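[job 0412] stage=fold_complex status=start
inputs:
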Amino acid sequence: MNIETKEGYQQNRRYFVRLPRIPRTVQARSFVWLSVTIFTISFFLIVAIRPTLVTIAKLNKEIKDKTEANKQLQKKINTLITAQEIYARNSDNLTLLDEAFPEKSEFPRLAYFFEQVATTSGVTLKSLNFERIGGVTPKEQGTSLLSSLPLNFSIAASGDYLKLKDLLKELESSRRILKITESTFNRVKKGEEFELQLSISGQASFGKGVKINN
Amino acid sequence: MKRNISQEILIIAALTLTIATLWIYLSVHRALNKGEYPVLSPQQTKILNPTLDESVFEELKKRKI
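[job 0412] stage=fold_complex status=done
writing structure:
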């Protein structure tokens, strides 16, 4: 086989493979392999790593939020325990609160108190009026809102100035919360004599949310 | 300079990797800062003030019924 000459090469060409330039082939192969590697990394980043990282971030945030909520609830539990202790310590005194701010208007008891105070002060109770309580609709009844309803009252009493003053003082020192809105002294002619009369207007409050039976 | 196809593929691959990395970063950032619904409602987080002025009871005891 003569391949030295051009004719000899042409005749035996089929036995030869034309190789490309070696440096160029190596570079191209490197680029291709590098590209394949990068594509593979990108693929796994998108398909596997991203969901994993997002899940980890979400769980981290959830843990952080729930830890914060746990702290807040623990704080609330502590305050409730403290409140429970205070309640237990003062449970005997709760009747005092009921007397000061009753759930119902309890106007008979209030009327009795006024009579008693008038008697102890030594004055004559001329009149005692209670205003009908309005503004409570059946819908509002039974609600647990803590708000007060006023029970308006007016008293007229006659007697000495000092005794009337005592009456006023006694009313102001009542355990039931009374708001005296007006008090006036009048001189009323009774026969041939003048009589000193004290007129008092005020409000006694009671809690809302309980049926009113009067 | 004439580029061959392998170089073009490499550039595309590099861009894909950059975009994928950026997407992952943004997704994680959004997951961390996403304002989801709060764990507790305002009513549940409302804290009771347990202080009580106990001198009120003494004052009430002194008053007449």
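[job 0412] summary: The longest strand of chain A covers residues 193-207.
[job 0412] exit 0
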